[in-house]
């Protein structure tokens, strides 16, 4: 067994491990895809027991000094139980820690034999616990096996440079200039339900038919001022370079002539067409800044498009494209009466650090 005494500063209480405790901590620390918080706490205690200073342990685990001190003290006071999360108020537990761990490990590291993911019923059959108990464990650890989200990793060779460029515009926009997030929302459908919508009533939600009639599509070009949140919009039936050029001409008319215009766009071919390059050469106050491929999250106007969809389009009914376009213009006008800019909070370095941490969880992502 090892004892550790601090070399300087406030005296450190000795941390002594039994062979059983060391074996358990080593097993917990080796978790690869589950119980990562517990694995890190175990590594902290093991490192302290090996004689490493709190500063060295904090640097190794990329945590703060108080975090190292906290879990070291918790272990000394409560031993292995001190590394688990605090027990919440309520009745006495009837499920042992080993059973909870079995559910978590199975959920995160294995699949059932007859399905791609676990259900409460299949996990209950696997572990012998009730379906309600499985549900409570999953809820406590915020696990949702039935859900899946999609992601796309950018393969842009200039990813770092483009992120720094765009984020730099958000945090430190140039003087005597306006920064606009620009994109087009294409294929907006004018949809009308096959039967009238039944309005909401006490005790009954709004009801509508599941089927609908299509009356055509349109495209909204939008440019959002990152400082004020105000949006300049233009609607066209198509979204070719010709329409994008018309939109740029509108921006040129509406933005004061004494301001430079910095446009944040994605890599859609329309934005890089020869006719657009020619137009930009004739209008030197316009500057294009492209987001990396598969990185639409970096363009704030995409968030605004999400609001437009959620608040107006998803449950809207329109009997013609003309009616749809009229309603979009009205919604944009209402937005501009009290525009609300989005506040960008992540620096480029924080984005890279988060992405690096995420890639470490994906097998082979670094190759």
How would you portray this structure in words?
The structure is a single chain. The protein is α/β, with parallel strands linked by helices and 367 residues long. The chain has 3 domains: 19-83; 106-140, no CATH class; 159-351, Ribonuclease H-like superfamily/Ribonuclease H (Nucleotidyltransferase, domain 5, 2-Layer Sandwich). Helix content is 43%, strand content 13%. It contains 13 helices and 5 strands. Strands 3-2-1-4-5 form a 5-stranded mixed beta sheet. Helix 10 links the parallel strand 4 and strand 5 (286-290). The longest helix is centred in the C-terminal third of the chain and has 17 residues, at 321-337. The radius of gyration is 28 Å and the shape is extended. Mean pLDDT is 80; it is low at 1-7.
The first-level CATH class name of the largest domain: Alpha Beta
> What shape does the CA trace take?
extended
Order of helices and strands: HHHHHHHHEEEHEHEHHH
Here the CATH topology of the largest domain equals Nucleotidyltransferase, domain 5
Helix content: 40-55%
Major sheet details: 5 strands, mixed
**What is the average per-residue confidence, as pLDDT, rounded to a whole number?**
80
Q: What class, by secondary structure content?
A: alpha/beta
Distance between the termini: 41 Å
Radius of gyration: 28 Å
Within the largest sheet, what's the order of strands?
A: 3-2-1-4-5
Can you summarize this structure?
By secondary structure, the protein is an alpha/beta fold. 43% of the residues lie in helices and 13% in strands. The chain has 13 helices and 5 strands.
């Amino acid at each position: 067994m090892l004892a550790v005494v601090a070399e300087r500063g406030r005296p450190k209480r000795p941390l002594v491990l039994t062979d059983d405790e060391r074996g358990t901590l080593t097993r917990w620390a080796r978790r690869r895809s589950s119980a990562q918080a517990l694995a890190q706490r175990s590594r902290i205690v093991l490192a302290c027991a090996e004689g490493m200073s709190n500063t060295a342990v904090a640097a190794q685990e990329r945590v703060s000094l108080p975090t190292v001190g906290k879990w070291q003290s918790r272990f000394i006071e409560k031993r292995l139980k001190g590394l688990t999360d605090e027990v919440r108020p309520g009745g006495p537990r009837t499920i042992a820690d080993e059973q909870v761990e079995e559910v978590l490990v199975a959920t995160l590291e294995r699949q059932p034999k007859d399905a791609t993911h676990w259900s409460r019923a299949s996990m209950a059959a696997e572990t012998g616990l009730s379906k309600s108990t499985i549900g409570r464990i999953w809820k406590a650890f915020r696990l949702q096996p039935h859900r899946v989200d999609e992601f796309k990793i950018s393969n842009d060779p200039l990813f770092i440079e483009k992120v720094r460029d765009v984020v730099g515009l958000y945090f430190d926009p140039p003087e005597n200039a306006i920064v606009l997030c620009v994109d087009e929302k294409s294929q907006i459908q004018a949809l009308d339900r096959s039967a009238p919508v039944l309005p909401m009533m006490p005790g009954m939600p709004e009801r509508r038919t599941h089927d609908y009639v299509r009356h055509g599509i349109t495209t909204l070009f939008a440019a959002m001022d990152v400082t004020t949140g105000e949006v300049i919009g233009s609607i066209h039936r198509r979204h070719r370079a010709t329409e994008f050029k018309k939109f740029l001409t509108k921006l040129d008319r509406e933005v004061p002539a004494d301001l430079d215009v910095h446009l944040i766009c994605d890599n859609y071919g329309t934005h890089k067409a020869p006719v657009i390059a020619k137009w930009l050469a004739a209008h030197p106050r316009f500057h294009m800044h492209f987001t990396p491929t598969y990185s639409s999250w970096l363009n704030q106007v995409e968030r605004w498009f999400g609001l437009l969809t959620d608040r107006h389009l998803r449950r809207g009914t329109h009997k013609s494209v003309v009616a749809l376009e009229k309603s979009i213009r009205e919604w944009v006008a209402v937005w501009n009466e009290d525009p609300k800019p989005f506040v960008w909070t992540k620096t480029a370095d924080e984005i890279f650090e988060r992405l690096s941490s995420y890639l470490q969880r994906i097998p082979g992502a670094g190759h």
